[in-house]
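Subject: Sanity check before I submit

Could someone independently write out the structure tokens for this chain? I want to compare against mine line by line before I put it in a report. The sequence has 150 residues.
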Amino acid sequence: DLSRSRAQLPHPLSFSHQPAMVRINVLNDALVSICNAEKRGKRQVLIRPCSKVIVQFLTVMMKKGYIGEFEIVDDHRSGKIVVFLNGRLNKCGVISPRFDVSIKDIEKWASNLLPSRQFGCLVLTTSVGIIDHEEARRKHTGGKILGFFY
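---
Independent answer below. Compare away.
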């Protein structure tokens, strides 16, 4: 039937499906899923994909006692992490872009982001490695801010 007008036919190059969403910030996705699982009262959460930065960030959180242990699952792709939660985490987030933080600015960033001086951590990436703001002050080094948790 040739009576159909040209406007009704689909374009030969048009795709019917939406393009796949691209992950912009893997660390942000990981922290958001941890935060949401914590709010729902879950005992563990699966994070994918895995990256070195996520592993270091989680290590800082574990040392401070905000999460339990975590295990890295190697699936021969980008990997997964299973994080065991202990109910101590209130909020965690990424600071994007990764602003430069000098030693004298650490206190200012901490007061802006954290609820009190007694608890919570900023996570910085420094030449020493990925560490929290107290350790950065002890080691007398600045760096770029990755995120925070409390």
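---
OP: Matches mine. For the report I'm noting this point. The two ends are 67 Å apart (CA to CA).
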